[in-house]
Amino acid sequence: MLKQNLQQKLLQKLSPQQIQLMKLLQVPTVELEQRIKEEMEVNPALEEGREDDEVEDEYEEEEEDREEEEFDISDYLDDDETPDYKLVAKNQGADPEEKDVPLGSGRSFREVLGRQLGLRNTTERQEDLAENLIGNLDDSGYLRRDIPSIVNDLAFTQNIMTNEEELEQVLKIIQDFEPAGVGARNLQECLLLQIKRVKRKDESVKLAEMILKDFFVEFTKKHYSKITKKLEIDDEDLKVAIEEIIKLNPKPGNSLKDSVRTIQHVVPDFILTVNDDDELSLTLNQRNAPELKVSREYKTMLDTYAKTKDKKKQKEAVMFVKQKIDSAKWFIDAIKQRQQTLMLTMNAILKYQEAYFKTGDETKLKPMILKDIAEIVGMDISTISRVANSKYIQSPYGTFLLKTFFSESLSTDSGEEVSTREVKKILQDSIDAEDKKKPLTDERLAKVLKDKGYNIARRTVAKYREQLNIPVARLRKQL
Hints:
By secondary structure, this protein is α+β, with helices and mostly antiparallel strands. Helix content is about 50%, strand content about 5%. The strands form three sheets. A four-stranded mixed β-sheet has the order 3-2-5-6.
């Protein structure tokens, strides 16, 4: 049974201006110029340049005179005859996510392989099979799919009947292409393909090929004693052979990836300087961010349309012009508010981490979470997150992403709260200073930290080590 009833609800909704500000906060300096250009393209009332105070005062006087005339724009803007929904096109969600597709340039490594294929003396059938195999290579240059599956795919999808033996022969043709190692089915085959192409055939190269062929598992697990024992060689011979293996490229496809990769340059949003008196000076990077103003022509146009006698055309024109002027004002205000929010947030971070920014010593970083800064500046945590996630600061100690300064706290034996980043720095220094022939295990690293007053469990040490992209002790071992 259908029923109709009236309900009153209290809802909080973001205004279009607030949504615009939130999006601008996320935009880093390197993309701000493009965002401003996009807005100027869609809104002709927005211009580049500084507002002229005299012209602005003159416009305000004219606007006051116009208010005294018989025609009043507000009468048309508040006219109930034209509903708001007819004046606004809304075919997107409340907060649509913008997904820009980067433009690539150059040739991909598959295209490079295709050009090499054209230079080979192959039959038309071999060329078709080779093109299919090249299409199955991943970005690293490996053939991850097994040959029987490709044979079935060719039969069912392209009606090409072949067998594993014929496909293997075509694969060998591809494996002879540049870069060396492309078309391999696993890391061992990839390295073997490369070592076989080394023109210098001395004992170290022959030994390296033997290790890759017969002792690959022992090599990857760094069981060096087993290799030296079975091959009856000493550590020095093994070290020279391993140096040859290290020269090889485990991902040959990536060697051609630079030609098509869009390089994103880091442009700092803040510039920090420290003078001789240890005083911090923070400036907002305004590069490529021009000053904006509302078009004087559009303001004049509004006056002109207000005096026309055709009331129907007058109303439509006034609505259009005023909408563009208001949109331009909103955007200019949003840019100004963005700058104020960025400076307010960064100044709070500088004050909170003053000891670090004056010295550059990471061990002086205090534990800091988004909530700490949000309480200082009186803003929501989500706003601080938007600022920290995409903004960089240039300092005398390097250029850093703001979110790297945020870290959780950890208690020492003395009860002092320290940053987890401080612990990671000590962990990194301990591993850098270790004896590479006998690297420190996680248990021994935990003991080192405990001796320094940081009572941390072994599993926590393992977690921090993984976050620092440091392998386990066995894989750090060197001869």
